[in-house]
């Protein structure tokens, strides 16, 4: 039979290890929650900032955005958002490496691989993913709503 003091010390060491691991994960979570990544399109008319979960925290449009066709502006916003999101996996990986280290490579790999699949890195060719002339939007309104066109134009901020 084992020495009770030795068993107690072993249990205490195990508990201390778990507490230390929990603290490292708490620190990693805190740092990850503070990550913000921004991207600006090539002409500076659109800037998007995202969190580590990919959600948009800020969208800034310059005066140039007012002169863009709405389809192009929408495409620019989405492309700029995707560029910002494409850096998420690397940022989270860096935080995990600093806070967790090599203690739990399986969890770290699962998290980063999940982020890479959700927010893939862009190729250099993807720096500007917007078509120069997007196809015109299809008018899905019925004939009854065509009279509202002039009213819609008055309310259009663009």
From TrEMBL:
SUPFAM superfamilies: YbaB-like. Coiled coil: none annotated. Residues 138-148 have a biased composition (Basic and acidic residues). It comes from the Bacteria. Residues 122-136, 149-158 have a biased composition (Acidic residues). Pfam families: YbaB_DNA_bd. Residues 100-158 are annotated as: Disordered. This is YbaB/EbfC family nucleoid-associated protein. It comes from Amycolatopsis acididurans.
């Amino acid at each position: 039979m084992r020495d009770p003091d030795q068993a107690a010390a072993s249990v205490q060491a195990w508990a201390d290890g778990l507490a230390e691991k929990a603290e490292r994960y708490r620190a990693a979570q805190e740092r990850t929650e503070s990550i913000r990544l921004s991207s600006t399109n090539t002409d500076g008319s659109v800037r998007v900032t995202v969190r580590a979960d990919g959600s948009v925290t800020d969208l800034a449009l310059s005066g140039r955005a007012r002169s863009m066709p709405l389809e192009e502006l929408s495409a620019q916003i989405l492309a700029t958002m995707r560029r910002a999101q494409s850096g998420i996996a690397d940022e989270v990986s860096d935080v995990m490496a600093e806070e967790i280290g090599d203690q739990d490579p399986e969890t770290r790999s699962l998290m980063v691989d999940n982020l890479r699949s959700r927010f893939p890195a862009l190729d250099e060719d993807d720096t500007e993913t917007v078509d120069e002339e997007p196809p015109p939007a299809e008018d899905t309104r019925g004939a009854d709503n065509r009279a509202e066109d002039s009213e819609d134009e008055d309310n259009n901020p663009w």
